[in-house]
């Protein structure tokens, strides 16, 4: 891996609260600097709160590598899924005003709304959405391949979308569930989710450098650019557009503003002597609502979700946290309510463990624990299209001429895919993407990104064409979720 060693003045871009005043943090800059070099990261910012005040805040590295613009504690970073606790809080505020109950069914507030089946309609409540217990799942194909900015239109697709987990008795992480939660907020208030966040949270918490849209952030003078690693080299990537799933991950903020958010949660919902988040909601949101399956960490006998928060025992202390990942950015926010400690780390590196390791280093110091002898370097490299294309498999040729596959295919809850034949190749044209169909065998292909694809994830999903009783191509199966999605050919 190639390293870009940033000058010391850039790594120590802004010291708002000196480590020298906090004995446990002495030497922390050296540890963070070493991790930045090991991870070949561009920039990050850190803030720590304890006992109702900010005790440390600092920026490291660059927000803009090309122009060598340093990160400060007021540099804005997209925070990804750390947004979810904000959306949950809006519902908590509305519940305290007797405008909603978290035990209500979503259909009470969303017009023309139904889930996939009666069991879901009868059992799923709003609180199930907030703790990922609904069974809806992520429904990523509908959200990503067929985006729509209108949340109401998107959640009304749910009557056609099969659940991905057991209803009321599973842990299926769900951005779609939070889209529905945000839609409920909009229907109750008659205002957009974005306006509610500004009026009910950003304003009261003096989060003056926080935004809900990419356009607002880019009008500021101090925001970070997104980066990832490709074959060990730093690459600038695109910002992610959230469309309808903004309640699940669209907030952009600074460590100074996020410190206000942490102080509020650690002070029973009070900020600057004003109650912003109801105490009752704070207690429910930070109580185990859904147990997460799988392996347990050696120090975690409690592991699951509250409302927008992950809960566990860590270092022998009760901990609530949530991370965030979006194109070119990763974040970690950790709080220990009984010790009134909070740590937030925001970085402009894609899909990296770096913010979590820095948060671990800090919390170990604050609890007087031995440091980890060595942290792993764990960064998932960004995806970039491969220009090489393979010809048809001559031993397992398609059963029909390539032109026979062409046409418009539709699936309710998703949208339309147009299959076209250009330059002796098949392409799948979606609302925002165009993929080459590279042949696997007989009537099976996979989505292959073209040079126009700028997202950082690999979209390589299998496509299988099926015939009807007359032997004609009639259905396109997309294997992008737990169960294949059937797109039927329009006649």
From TrEMBL:
One MF annotation (Gene Ontology) recorded for this entry: hydrolase activity
Pfam families documented for this protein: Beta-lactamase, DUF3471
Keywords: Hydrolase
Chain ranges of the Peptidase S12 Pab87-related C-terminal domain: 394-483
UniProt xrefs under SUPFAM superfamilies: beta-lactamase/transpeptidase-like
Beta-lactamase-related domain boundaries: 35-352
PANTHER family: BETA-LACTAMASE-RELATED DOMAIN-CONTAINING PROTEIN, D-ALANYL-D-ALANINE-CARBOXYPEPTIDASE/ENDOPEPTIDASE AMPH
Protein name in UniProt: Serine hydrolase
Organism, as annotated: Maribacter aquimaris
